[in-house]
Q: What sequence folds into this?
């Protein structure tokens, strides 16, 4: 089955720093999504990418859909304490039930 | 507007027991999906239902079953619970079943099997 690997596994950064995280897949996806999950909550969609090479921003967040369709990255600029959480990439499998394959997650800690 | 609501929020069960988890989608959403999230991992797809029909099933044993009701709410049932079934069970709803139009996740049900 599809495997999505995220790196780094965890990050500790100072408030105000920029953050970059990556996601690579063993399979091709036509849609990539980035989610953030806070403790005790479900994942919340941050950015959706629908086209290879696409670069999309949402406030301080920027994500890109890799040309090979097997990877994506997420950047967070000028981090703030509320950016703390676990970030998941997900590939959308549209061959059947439109289900999501999630990555292994990147845990972000922001030090004030 | 209410988001995706799941009940109960937490429960503890004993090995071998049966459990039923419930999900109410966002009003107007006709598709419900279930995901299992084991501690330290990303969510893993279990089922998707649209208009009361199963549209997809992940790699889970037959002990896992689900159904969707005429009001689009859904139940996830797990029989003969194992310790490894301990996880956060997430429900996600979306407006359509055949076209991707975005999923909204609930806060989940935390199941602990002892």
A:
């Amino acid at each position: 089955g599809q495997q999505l690997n995220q790196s780094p596994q965890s990050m500790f950064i100072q408030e105000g720093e920029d953050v970059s995280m990556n996601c690579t897949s063993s399979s091709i996806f036509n849609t990539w999504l980035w989610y953030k999950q806070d403790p005790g909550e479900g994942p919340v969609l941050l950015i959706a990418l629908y086209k290879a090479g696409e670069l999309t921003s949402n406030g301080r967040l920027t994500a890109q859909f890799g040309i090979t369709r097997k990877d994506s990255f997420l950047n967070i600029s000028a981090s703030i304490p509320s950016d703390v959480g676990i970030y998941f990439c997900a590939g959308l499998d549209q061959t059947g039930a439109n289900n999501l394959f999630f990555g292994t997650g990147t845990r972000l800690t922001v030090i004030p | 507007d209410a988001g995706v609501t799941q009940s109960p929020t937490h429960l503890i069960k004993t090995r071998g027991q049966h459990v039923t988890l419930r999900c109410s989608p966002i009003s107007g959403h006709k598709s419900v999906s279930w995901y299992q999230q084991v501690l330290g991992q990303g969510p893993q797809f279990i089922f998707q239902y649209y208009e009361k029909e199963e549209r997809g099933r992940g790699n889970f044993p037959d002990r896992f079953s689900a159904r969707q009701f005429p009001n689009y709410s859904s139940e996830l049932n797990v029989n003969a619970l194992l310790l490894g079934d301990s996880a956060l069970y997430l429900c996600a709803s979306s407006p359509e079943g055949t076209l991707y139009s975005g999923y909204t996740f609930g806060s989940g049900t935390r199941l602990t099997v002892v």
Remarks:
- The mean pLDDT of chain A is 93.
